[in-house]
Amino acid sequence: MQSAEGMKVRIAGSTLELVIGDIALQKMDVVVNAANNQLAGGGGVDGAIHRGGGPAIMEETRQKYPRGCPTGEAVISGAGQLAARYVVHTVGPVWGGGQGREEEQLASAYRRSLEVVIENGCSSAAFPSLSTGAYRYPFDLAARCALSTVMAFLKETGKPEWVRFVLFDESAYSAFSVALTDLLSDEIG
Ligand code: APR
Fold it and tell me: Where are the domains of the chain?
């Protein structure tokens, strides 16, 4: 299950994978961007995707989505010079202590992204850990929400075929691998 390449499990016929890496370099049908409501670009994941993809991505999102993207929603564009075919731009919540709708909004960002992936006929998608950088969502809570949402979606729909979480460093990878192991053992136990 665990190897130098990361951790890979089968969920209802699909593959769910955890790796350490750079989201902008993934050769998947879709890479998911951790965007903001204005789709204005930024640092972190957003910076890496727009730097790697070039200006075509922002030109397209400005034209197609002039009003941006609400929190918990997702929109799609081409991927410019990235190795992926499309970018799905989603907006996770800003962590405000957990008393608001953060968990619901984070789950919605993953779910809506997956819906957009399959509506566009794509079978593989790479996600970063949404909201855990500039938006300060605690990693362990975010990992559990991300994985349980994606696992439930795969079980419900049987799609897409392949979901990869691309974690930026060892500690992010470790939070996700602990959460995945816990969720899988909850299922068995
Ligand atoms: N590949 C994979 N993961 C990355 C990369 C990368 N190239 N760069 C950063 N990360 C990790 C961060 O370490 C963090 O754990 O992705 C996670 C999400 O961090 P952010 O990119 O800051 O996303 P988020 O917390 O959702 O904040 C979104 O930040 O860049 C702005 O425009 C963006 O306003 C929006 C906000």
Answer: 2-188
Average pLDDT of the segment spanning 122-145:
98
**Which atom of ligand 1 sits closest to the CA of residue 136?**
25
Cα–Cα distances (Å) from 14 to 9, 94, 144, 154, in that order, read: 8, 30, 19, 7
- Is CATH 3.40.220.10 what the domain over 2-188 is classified as, yes or no? yes
Regarding beta strands 6-11 and 14-20, do their DSSP bridges make them parallel or antiparallel, or are they unpaired? antiparallel
Which residues touch 90 (CB under 8 Å, ≥6 apart)? 32, 33, 34, 35, 69, 73, 74, 75, 109, 110, 112, 113, 130
Region 25-54: mean pLDDT is 98
Distance 33 CA to ligand 1 centre (A): 8
What is the per-residue pLDDT for 181? 97
State yes or no: pLDDT of 145 exceeds 90.
yes
Catalytic residue among 22, 29, 46, 186: 46
For residue 126, name the pLDDT band (cuts at 50, 70, 90): very high
Residue with tokens 């130098």: 4
Q: Which residues line ligand 1 (CB under 6 A)?
A: 22-24, 34-36, 42-48, 92, 128-135, 166, 168, 172
Q: Can 186 be counted among the known catalytic residues?
A: no
